[in-house]
Amino acid sequence: MRHFLPSSSKPSWPIRYLTPYRYHCSSPTLTPEPENPQIVPSDSQGSKNPEFSSKIQILSNLNENWKKPISENPGLSQTHVVESLLSHRNDPAAAFKYFQWAEGQRGFLRGVSDPYCVLLHILVSSPNEYSLTRRLLNSYVSSDSSPSGILLFDHLISCSERFDFPLNSEVFNYLLNSYVRACRNRDAIDCFHAMVSCNIMPNVTVVSITLSALVRRKLISEARKMYDDIVGRGINHDCAAVHVIMRACLKEGNMVEAEKCFSEAKARGLVLDAAVYSTAVHVACHKLDTDDASELLKEMKRKGWIPSEGTYTNVVCAYVKQRNMVEALRIKDEMIGSGHSLSLVVATSLMKGYNLQGQFIAALDLFNDIVARGLNPNKVTYAVLIEGCCRYGNMEKASELYTMMKFAGIRPTVYTVNSLIRGFLKAGLLDEAIKQFDEAVDAGIANVFTYNSLMSCFCKGGKVNDARIIWDKMVNNSIEPSAVSYNNMILGNCRQGNMEAALSLLSKMLEKNLKANVYTYTILIDGYFRKGEKDQALRMFDQMAASGVPINDFTYNTIINGLCKAGSTSEAKSFLNKLMHTGYTPLVMAYNSIIDGYEKEGAINSALAAYAEMCESGISPNVVTYTCLINGYCKSNQIDLALKLSTEMRTKGVAWDITVYSALIDGFCKRRDMESARELFDELFEVGLYPNVVVYNSMISGFRNINNMEAALALHKRMCNEGIPCDVDIYTTLIDGLLKDGKLLLASDLYTEMLAKDIVPDAVTYFVLVHGLCNKGQVENARRILNDMYGMNMTPNVLIYNTLIAGYFKEGNLQEAFRLHDEMLERGLAPDDTTFDILVTGKYKGGNFPLRVSSG
Q1: How far from the centroid of its chain's Cα atoms is residue 56's Cα?
Q2: Of 36, 389, 570, 596, which is least surrounded by CB within 10 A?
Q3: Whether residue 27 has pLDDT greater than 60
Q4: Residue 106: its pLDDT value, please?
Q5: Repeat PPR: residue ranges (predicted)?
Q6: Residue 770 CB-density burial (10 A; 0-12 exposed, 13-18 middle, 19+ buried)
């Protein structure tokens, strides 16, 4: 950009600009158009004035010359045209007429030339000719012959200095506006900077138009620089310019600059209108600064403005995002009180807010309300409600809304379909999910997320073959599997122990230029641990580290948990110690795995040491931590220590969960302290928890151990009434107790009930039956149990044979006793010392099969 100096130190212009103009007559005369009467000065004396007659003669001679061909008319030069124009600088209309004629004769005057610039200066001296000046500049700038750059600006400046024209800002404003209209953005920017360099200030309207055009043409950075220059130089501008820049910052997502622009304009005392305030509210809402947004709303109302529906909508949506439904509803009421109606956008946002707060019924009520008001829900409204239904497991209502949406002619979006599929899967309605999936595929709207949802479900459930069918369908429909798709299939194969297939998928994933992430490697590490291949798991971890994949808590916890489950808790603890030496801060989950590992290995002191270390490190134990320790104490019959820990839990505000109650109840039951167990059992209901099958198993076993079968059967009945399914352990415990109590008929009924529920007896159940029947002299019935085992393709163990052999010896049926001995040998069972003791002495000292009293 060239810089123009004050008139006291003018630049060196080309020689042709410095040549002094000489007039061809004593008084400058405007040459007339040939077809029109000559334009001469008016004189009331007419021919009586000799000077006037002389002028007429001169003009007549000139006219004769102009009637000659152009090539023979040496007087029509740029210099002559400029002289003629200057002679009528006070008559812009006549000057323009002459310029038109001269341009038609010579064709060199328009554009970057002295005559053209002189004409513009003459025209702009008269407000009546402003529109003509604007048209001339628009025509020039938009023509193909107009050169790039701001040569015309330079020439206008030059002419103003050489011909003593004042610097009228209007001609430069029109020039700048012409560049903007012609989409000559670079020239417009250069023209603006040239103007301000010459202290020619653009007017307010042109400033706003220029900024708006630059923003509209995505030259936001240039617009912001220009605005900063305008503000810095104190150039007059109005709120329209502020509004343009604020909207530009919004487009760029630069909320800080938008807010700064507003606050600075306000501080300068610039008069701002409702549109600027509305944009400021939008900015505040985008930042979720609802306090500022509400204050701006109040200020708008104090100024007598009624905020627009869009402004209110922004504030409502911002409060919803903050999950502040109280204020969102208040602003909604204020909007309606201001004369606006409840819009679909506001209603949909409020429905989403209700869903986020778990107020699903309120969302449905609002939906019914807007339908009653005559509003037609759109696809977003239905999507929000269906998503809420799916989130809270109301799949019946979700399906109903989905049907309503289709009936209204709204084509389902993939977002809604995916919500339904996830909802059906979460509710365990696999068939419905598959039906919805097939419908989405047939409609051509299924995307990779649609396929991934079903594949994830199948892989987590161990149905890899079903997942592979979905995979193949996805590929056949030209949908590229994502990293999540590969992770799902890798997980499925790892769960099945097929690590070779999992590694093959990893290779294919990398070939597709998909990055294996932390979840990919962690799934593989977990797969090796599940398969019992600890060394392979650790090698995969090393490979992960070598690949540069960031390792997170998920991975570390998987390794620590895997080592503990593999019986290598001490190694897990060493691994954690090494991590902590590098500055790593473990989560409570890592310590929980170690404490649980030590507890399962019977090293309760090591578990306590890990617990103490965790507390010293500032890591607060959670319910799982306490449960592991309490469970360990209870199993080692240290119920007092378990109770001490449970009291500590409550002191620290850690609520007991069902697992804590279960461990304590089981501990009391094993001590045959059924009164304390019953107190805890009743307390469960008081705190809003419900006993599960593990708790019932402990209680029933406890009452069996103290021969209180009436209480045990009552609990069994309660389980059935509450819909809690009984497992094989509970039936075995009840049958054992009833047989010991001599209630063979009831025991038989329970056995029949168990089989009717397709609960398969195990070796413990069969031993209980055989042992109980033999003890009650029902050896033949016990023998039939043996036949049931054969029918179930189960081989009786030595303990069961010993019990039957002893039973027959007791009845004196030695032949059957020895036959059973031979049968044992035929089935490949080796008799033990107890067998020979029975056969030799005829006595059975009574072996005990280790009954399970708890499935926990």
Answers
A1: 87
A2: 36
A3: no
A4: 67
A5: 168-202, 238-272, 273-307, 308-342, 343-377, 378-412, 413-443, 447-481, 482-516, 517-551, 552-586, 587-621, 622-656, 657-691, 692-726, 727-761, 762-796, 797-831
A6: buried
Query: Is 380 inside a domain boundary?
Result: no
**Do residues 838 and 805 lie in contact, with contact meaning Cβ atoms separated by under 8 Å?**
yes
CA atoms within 13 A of residue 855's CA, in its CB half-sphere: 16
Indicate the SS3 state at residue 218: coil
- Round to whole Å and give the CA distance between 699 and 216: 76
Distance CA(630)–CA(596), nearest Å, equals 10
Q: How many domains does the chain have?
A: 2
Is 508 part of a structural domain of the chain?
Answer: yes
Packing angle, helices 239-252 and 220-233, rounded to 10: 140
Residue 399, both tokens: 């399906």
pLDDT category, 642, cuts 50, 70, 90? confident
**Among 521, 551, 581, which residue terminates a domain?**
551
Q: At what angle do helices 588-600 and 604-616 cross, to 10 degrees?
A: 170
Distances (CA, A) of 695 to 142, 398, 665, 690: 88, 36, 7, 9
Query: Residue 445 burial by CB count (10 A; 0-12/13-18/19+): exposed, middle or buried?
Result: middle
Of 789, 782, 774, whose CA–CA distance to 827 is shortest?
Answer: 789
Residue with tokens 């001339």: 136
Summarize pLDDT for 197-219 with one digit per residue, the tens.
999 999 999 999 999 999 999 99
Report the chain's mean pLDDT, rounded to a whole number: 85
Helix (H) or strand (E) holding 485: helix 483-495
What confidence tens digit (pLDDT) does each residue in 72-111 have? 445 578 888 899 999 988 999 999 999 988 888 766 666 7
Q: Output the pLDDT for position 32.
A: 38
Q: Are 188 and 221 in contact (CB under 8 A)?
A: no
Q: What percent of the chain has pLDDT over 90?
A: 59
In degrees, rounded to 5, the angle at the alpha carbon of residue 478 between the alpha carbons of residues 473 and 479 is 80
**Tokens read off for 18:** 């410095």
Q: What does 744-797 look like in DSSP terms, one character per residue?
A: HHHHHHHHHHHHHTTPPP-HHHHHHHHHHHHHTT-HHHHHHHHHHHHHTT----
Residue 777: what pLDDT? Answer: 86
Reported confidence tier of residue 40, pLDDT bands at 50, 70, 90: very low
User: Looking at the chain, how many residues does it have?
Assistant: 856
Residue 799 phi/psi, 5-degree rounding, is: -60, -40
139 in helix, strand or coil?
helix
Is residue 778 assigned to a domain?
yes
Helix, strand, coil percentages, rounded to 5, for the chain: 70, 0, 30
**812 within a domain of the structure (yes/no):** yes
How confident is the model at residue 842, as a pLDDT?
Answer: 63
Q: How far is Cα 746 from Cα 578, in angstroms, rounded to an integer?
A: 60
pLDDT level of residue 387 (50, 70, 90 thresholds): very high
DSSP 127: G
Torsion over CA: 350, 356, 361, 364 (sign): positive
Tokens in use for 306? Answer: 């009624």
CATH number where 804 lies: 1.25.40.10
Task: Record the tokens describing residue 76, joined without a space.
Answer: 């029509």
pLDDT band at 46 (very low <50, low <70, confident <90, very high): very low
> What domain range includes position 785?
729-847
Instruction: Determine the straight-line distance between the first and last CA of the chain, rounded to whole angstroms.
Output: 84
| Residue that wins the pLDDT comparison between 182 and 7 | 182
Identify the residue whose tokens are 């502040």: 324
Vertex 744: Cα angle to 740 and 747 (nearest 5):
85
Q: Which pLDDT value is given to residue 574?
A: 94
Final residue in a domain of this structure, among 496, 522, 551: 551
Q: What is the DSSP letter of 7?
A: G
d(C-alpha 352, C-alpha 767), whole Å = 59
Residue predicted with more confidence, 36 or 50? 50
439 HSE (CA, 13 A, CB side): 17
